[in-house]
Amino acid sequence: MRKDRFTEERSFLNDRRSGRGRHAEQEEGRGRHGRGGFGGHHGHRIFDHGEVRYVMVALLAEKPSYGYELIKDIEERLSGAYSPSPGLVYPTLTMLEEMGYATSETGVGGKKLYSLTAEGREFHKTSKAMIEAIFARMARAADLHGRAESPQIVRAIQNLRFTLKLKSGAKKLTDAQVRAIADALDEAAKRIEQC
User: Fold this and answer.
1) Are both 11 and 73 inside the same structural domain?
2) How many domains are contained in the chain?
3) Are 35 and 83 in contact, with CB atoms under 8 Å apart?
4) Are 93 and 155 in a shared domain?
5) pTM, whole model, 2 decimals?
6) Per residue in 110-155, pLDDT tens?
7) What are the φ/ψ torsions at residue 43 (nearest 5 degrees)?
8) Which of 35, 101, 112, 113 would bridge 120 by S-S if both were Cys, CB 3.0 to 4.6 A apart?
């Protein structure tokens, strides 16, 4: 007889976390940088705990996929801002199989092709609101990442960092200088918010 789904999932995730320490948080999208992008870029989180499974269920509802295809699809939907590692994706696929939501068949080269079961499709249908919210957040993150990566903005950020480093490294700043720099940065942040 199958264990209660909630207990099974919680137990699986706790087992995974106990072996990975703080890396589990990074893999959930709070600190894992994919190709220099952000999983936790500037403090933003792409996925909350357990949300990757909803993303994978939604992607598998679109079409059966291999694990590496799911990784690539998530990365593309996030415009390269985040790429989940195999260490997150494959255990999550295993969990979905154990929960009865997905099944796999061995394909070319021994690779597993994953697809949703009828139970998985039902879970997808009942989780529609959650999935839509996650994908909306992914779209916002992709949009922010795309804008942040424009060459003009990257150059300006690097220029600011360099100037601050020179200014603070040259000599001890006075209280007045510290206040003036903080005020200038606050003003810049306000102006950027209004753009």
Assistant:
1) yes
2) 2
3) yes
4) no
5) 0.56
6) 899 999 999 999 999 999 999 999 999 888 888 776 665 565 666 7
7) 85, 0
8) 101
